[in-house]
Write a structure and sequence with these properties.
- The complex is a heterodimer of chains A (229) and B (80).
- Chain A contains 12 helices and no strands.
- By secondary structure, chain A is mainly α.
- Chain A has 2 domains: 49-125, Rna Polymerase Sigma Factor, Chain: A; 144-228, Winged helix-like DNA-binding domain superfamily/Winged helix DNA-binding domain (Arc Repressor Mutant, subunit A).
- Chain A starts with a helix and ends with a helix.
- Chain B is mainly α.
- Chain B contains 4 helices and no strands.
- Chain B has helices at 8-20, 26-38, 40-59, 66-73.
- Chain B is elongated, with a radius of gyration of 21 Å.
- Classes of the chains: A mainly alpha (229), B mainly alpha (80).
- Chain A binds chain B through residues 3, 6-8, 51, 54-55, 58, 62, 65-66, 69-70, 73-74, 79, 83, 86-87, 90-91, 94, 137-139, 141-142, 154-156, 158-159, 162, 164, 167-168, 171, 185-187, 191-192, 207, 210-211, 214, 217-218, and chain B through 10, 13-14, 16-18, 21, 23, 44-45, 47-49, 51-53, 55-57, 59-65, 68-69, 71-73, 75-77, 79-80.
Amino acid sequence: MYLGERLPKPFARNSEGRSSVPTPEENALLGWPAMSETTPDTEARRLATEARDRVRFEEDALALADQVYRVARHLVGSREEAEDLMQEAYARAFRSWRSFRPGTNLRAWLLRILTNLNIDRGRRLQRTPGLEPLEEGDYFLYNRLEESSPDAPDEERVVERLSQDSVVSALSAVPHDFRDVVVLVDIGDFSYADAAQILDIPIGTVMSRLHRGRRVLKQQLAQEAVGAA
Amino acid sequence: MTSFADDPCAKCEELLQPFLDRELNDAERVEAEAHLSLCSYCRKRYRFEEHLRRFVRQAVVEEMAPELKARLAALRTPLF
């Protein structure tokens, strides 16, 4: 789309190629007060640049929507909630696009808005009760799956014992605080540092929640797969 | 904290998560790799964890509805 066509043209030039708006020199001759540094022409250019930057921002943000949604979908309990949250987050992002610093991680910026909105909704109040990770090592899911099958399979076949549905339900059983971090790092592929920024928590907290969250996830998976926990 | 000298497999288990997250420093990574090259017990469990993560990531993918995409696009600021 050619932006110029859709922008207002307040400073159209006349047939002699002269602006219909007086130049600063003409203003001085006419004895009019000089306008500050912003002449109408530079103002028009500024507006055009801003419109172009905004359009680019909006296009970049929309291009990331699929990836943002994949994460958002598992930060909340249902598809409907995820869709509402996406719309709220995008509306806010489009309104406050000027506060995004170009060259930084736009996907993380969008998810920061989205998680803040999610927290504002009071979702934190409805915490999943009770699920604390087992004080067992990180190898325990593998050990359980291996124990429960008679002919000691290789690592890949062990994973195949889990079903897609069991993973989805196991993930949704992880308490919110742990799950947010697991979803950002394991599904969103964010670094610890990005996850810390998105959730506005220290990096050490990201690491401990991730650790505990993954353990709860494995605990759930073990339960689904072999009924052991 | 366990050390590789005391209990190498326990130490390796401790490093499993940051290792796969690529968040270990060079010295720790080299130590873990050295142990993994010798120990099939840990190697199997590291591989399992890698497969598990990939499986989890793929299993939970739910694509966005096309209508939602259209609704998001409609939120853009009109040009004038």
